[in-house]
Design brief:
Mean pLDDT: 86
Helix content: over 70%
Shape: rod-shaped
Radius of gyration: 36 Å
Number of helices: 2
Number of strands: 0
Strand content: under 5%
Oligomer: single chain
Largest sheet: none
Length: 76
């Protein structure tokens, strides 16, 4: 009977140590790394959105610009 309680005590002790020394720190670290990746992804999206703004439309050539052009023939 005493041996049964002793083994259960060791089992609970090792289970407790495993959870609080391994599982919880890994979970916290995973959560922190995920937040950092999300922050970097958000910064990249903001960067691309700022640089994806539409470029100004090219100026249309007016009739006056076309009239200013004078064709010439090459003289030999």
């Amino acid at each position: 009977m005493f041996l049964k309680y002793l083994l259960l005590g060791f089992l609970f002790y090792f289970l407790f140590k495993f959870i609080f020394d391994f599982v919880i720190p890994v979970a916290k670290t995973t959560r922190q790394v995920k937040k950092q990746f999300d922050a970097v992804r958000e910064q990249q999206q903001q960067f691309y959105q700022r640089h994806q703004e539409p470029a100004p439309a090219p100026k249309e050539s007016s009739k006056a610009d076309q009239d200013d052009y004078i064709e010439f023939e090459e003289v030999k």
